[in-house]
Amino acid sequence: MERWPGLVIAPGTPVLLQEQGGVCMAERTVRAQARAAADAGATMREETVVLAIHRRGDGVQLTTDRGDRYTAPVAVVTAGPWAGPLLRTAGIALPLVPSFEQVTYCRLAGEPHPFPTIIDWSGVSTRGLPSDGDGSTKTPYALPNPEEPGSIKMALDRSGPDVDPDARSFEPDPERLARLAGWASRRFLPLVEAQPPETCLYTNTPDGEFVLDRLGPIVVGSPCSGHGFKFAPLIGKILADMATGTPIALRLEAFQAGRAWRERHIVDRAFDA
What is the value of pTM for the model shown? Predict the structure, then answer.
């Protein structure tokens, strides 16, 4: 409480502090990665939809919505919520399910203070929410904006319903916003809205783990369940090594596309208990 006076934690509440935790500068990182790729010779095709991937001999052919066709020995697919339908055009079926998520942006109403990253395992009840009507809990989290002390981004982890990424709404769910606001009122000094809430998509697997695998001429990279971005450089290196046939000094069995899938909610409820 002395270190982060904007937090409200009751005496006796168990807390785990991980000093190595941090926050990714997301926009800076994406721009830096794009510059590095372009400097290395990559050609960027923004606002271009890949409609299908077909195996052609020892390689692949990609077809876009602009009528372009590209052939290559290997295709690396990191299509997020669109990965499932796109991979099915290549004959690859994976249990990738997009869900409709949302985030809220707040700042302290009074004097600004820095915050750590917060994951609250005590949870928020989800009874009545469209994604989970059994009265279980979802985990709230909050991330500080290191460039703006006192400003935080917060959400309920994996609390939204399954959606079609091309037909989903962009309007936040007021019920989830209210539940998150109730949690925030207990964990922080008074907050005010810093900017309107935003919606986004997760790509979920049954066990919450990533998919990192090479299936013939197609390399699949699906860093799922909202946790992929912070591993982007490492995952990029792994997928590049898969594409070029470079040995990988990591055990990736848990991320193979053909693994035995187990339900993630069993782990969640163990934590809840």
Answer: 0.84
